[in-house]
Amino acid sequence: MSEANNTSRPPERHRGPVVLRRRFTQSGTTDQRLLDSAGPTDWVHTDPWRVMRIQSEFVEGFGLLAEIGPAITVFGSARTPRDHAEYELSRQLGYELAQAGYAVITGGGPGVMEAANRGCVEGGGTSVGLGIELPFEQGLNSYVDIGIDFRYFFVRKTMFVKYAQGFVFMPGGFGTLDELFEALVLVQTGKVTRFPVVLVGTDYWAGLVDWLKTRMVEAGKISPHDMDLIEVTDDVERVVHIMKDADEERRRQEIEATDALADDIRAGQARAAHPYP
Questions:
Q1: Nearest one of 209, 203, 251 to 231, comparing CA atoms
Q2: How many Cβ atoms are within 10 Å of 261's Cβ, its own excluded?
Q3: Tens-digit pLDDT profile for residues 107-161
Q4: Separation CA 208–CA 119 (nearest Å)
């Protein structure tokens, strides 16, 4: 056997925190097996135990990410090569966010995700990668400081939202669009509040934004003001400015809410002390 063959990387599969290689790899993913209704009836016995595994993923994610501080999640294509302008723009974005005091959360993969994690590390920030078990394993990129591999997409999606103050979407594919529209639905329905959604790349996103305006808005499927949930820019500094403005507004509203609560408490105490006019 040649030296090249000796040093080649064997087939590898991540199953949550578990790494399987060579003959221990298996086809399919945990998500696929959970959602497969055409499989054998042993799901009757195994699904209750899957709930425990799902619970453990939430616990691991909450425990790992609870203290990362203010963070921004960056999405984008895993297929972006390192010599592409979008890679360098993502790297700059990660750097500027780190300099502004934000941790950077990505899906932990290559391409745009790697670039954002890399820029964050270079900017002295906390670089976070939330990986996922896939049929074609990618693994976490080398610029991730804090990382976790999830089995279930819906657990991972929760972590993206729960620990971020905003989302930035670089040019990407189906996965990026999936996260984009899920974020917009969460903001539109009030499931998350004061949550900026920024698309970076005016040329790339122009067709989608135009379609939303000319088809969905005109057909009455979304309201005209729903388009205000999206900001499109090519300027990294503008992205950081949007995130900082949202943070300031969030703090202002929290202070106002605290003051209003204190006023209500004082008014209640006054009424209790003098119950009769």
A1: 209
A2: 10
A3: 999 999 999 999 999 999 999 999 988 766 567 999 999 999 898 899 999 999 9
A4: 28
